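pasting for ref
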Amino acid sequence: MGPMHIWALGVGIVLVGEFMGWNFTIAKGGSLGSIIACWVIGILYISLVMINTEIGSVIPEAGGQYAMAKYLLGPLAAFNIGLMLVFEYVMLEAADALVVGQILQSLHPDVQALPYIILSLLLLTYLNYRGVYATLTLNFFITAIAFVTIFVLLFGTQFYSPEHSLIQIKQLTDGLPYGWIGIVAAFQFGVWFYLGIEGTALAAEECRSTGRSLPIGAMVGLVTLLIGATTTWFVCSGLVGAEKLGESVFPLYDAALATGKPYVIIALFVGTILSCLASANGCINDSSRAWFAMSRDTLIPGVFAVTHPKYKTPYRAILFLLPISIAFGFTGLLDQVITFSILSALLVYVLTAYMMFKFRAMYPLGSIERGYTAPWHPIPAVVLLLLTLTTLVGMYFGYWINMVSGFMFYLLASVWFTMHRSKFVDTDTFIEAGAGCWPRPQGY
């Protein structure tokens, strides 16, 4: 894969967050709280991408943050991070399925969405089964089309003409109804604008040139998302009232309906469906790679470490995770599914910030060749840690039960690993293959 495919993987997974889910920031923090959360969380992800790209560019191995933890933190932390990555993407895929179902049902109450959703996910699973190159090439095109539909909506409002513009920001926004606490609470769903861009590191092993493809694809993808997120907030807030927008399942499509223009409505209907398909496609790719990597290292049973003899894909991991995602998707609880995905991601971010400090201590600049060097260290790691912890505080205001449940799940999983699975891990060979590429770390 090249930079185009990395862009397609990162943006393809995340773009659905601009078609649904982000608007819960308005319910939590009001219209201004929403856009502030969008920009502040954008800084979090700039820091995260810088860190991921530096470490990921010298670990050309499937697994992303899992592979980083494997080399920097050891088996127990690697197991937890791998599990968190799997659930981050499986839950995101479930949210995609949920939105596809609800937007199809909006056409007519008698529409049965389940067959279409299962058929779509089966098709995407088959593409992932056949190979990553064709999968992410397709993702490039459907992601690009979905992204363009946002700007079809923008120009359909004639925002550039004071006399004919449909945008009514002053009339439809509600400011900061809950003050600064609302802004902090909005951070949780502000993550949804960008959640998944860090998954670009999961494809490091399949890049033609990791040191080139990963930095370019990830950075261009993040710029794309920052532009798209700001445009999405502007258009939706100017077309749909804050109260309705804060609870919408498909805010961009509702904004298109508010224009009353058939070509805009059709474009956003297609864009919403394509963004969900692109996201689900990328989630299948990322979650299966993390599951495969854990199995290959014997952190979970080795049955999932088998690759297809012809297509060289982790087909057992791909097929195993599909029904789990579909099952969560049809709970019908969009915000709950999103919350567990976000919680899993935030826990990974906390550990990623710590890994950056440890990585620079183990391998100072000049000790190994880096494909990309994050500037201003340790500022990005400190910013990532502080903003992630603040977001977790904001999540506590509305979803403390979900947080406790999530922490208990990962705690019990850690106990299971320590008491049962850890005895199958050969710590002498756990990092043998990749460690041979690096000099012995300083102080170890």
